[in-house]
Amino acid sequence: MVSPSGQVTNVWRLINSGALNAYDNMAVDEAILNSFLKGISSPTLRFYRWSPASVSLGYNQIPSDVLTDFALNSGKAPFVRRITGGESIFHGFDLSYSIICRKENLGLSDSVKESFKQLTGFILNAYRDLGLSVNYFCDGVPFDHSGGSNICFARTRGFDISCGGKKLGGNAQKRMKNVIFQHGSVPFEIKKDRMKEIYRQDIQKESGFTCLNEALGREITEKELTGVLTRSFERTFSAALVPGVLDNYEQADAEQLARGKYVSKDWNHTAQAVPTVKGIHE
Length: 282
Known about the structure:
It is a single chain. The chain is α/β, with parallel strands linked by helices. About 35% of the residues lie in helices and about 25% in strands. It is built from eleven helices and 14 strands. The chain has a seven-stranded mixed beta sheet with strand order 13-1-2-6-11-10-14, sandwiched between helices. A four-stranded mixed beta sheet has the order 7-8-9-12.
């Protein structure tokens, strides 16, 4: 947004966390959300990776329904429950993002589904900047409405992004009144062999999704994708992204959440765990 004097008034903080483990990643997302809810932090866009490769489970998913005994018991396939709904994602070969803001920061709709589409607009535009032909499934692209998959990339909804009729990436949103938290994943690769060890579902039979390297016909680096997404966000939302880091409050909160919540079996193994922050899961 530009004021009459020509100054950009929609200023956001941009955090690039690099690669963190699953528990720290979810703790940092929630710490930024908590800080924003308290009026401490500014609207924030965060990029991050996952190391080691890990699974994030949707808030309402039951681990034993989704994951193999190997994943549940070996300790070699870390998994963490998100505060958002939806299906599981195998991370480690993707770039993840999170957005924390108020509706008025981006002029978002009161409708969860419509705001979901508005927020992912910068991702859609970034894909187009890379030369891909993409659209939303709800905009006339045929897709299977039946659902049923426990894996995010294999389950298609109307506001997901289609590339050649295949789903590209996944996103989830949570609302607390007019505060919006959304995060998602853009896959560089789909590691079906690794996923076969982790998921009870036969991932080898799934063909309705794609990844960025496959869609582009070349490998794309994290630096290139982050740059394209950053420029697209600023252009799509008329915003200025200013590089920043976690403040002291967020850092302390993230450390506490990682140790006290996200590594705990009570949180990760218990179906429908009580969330720290109530909201709508999409």
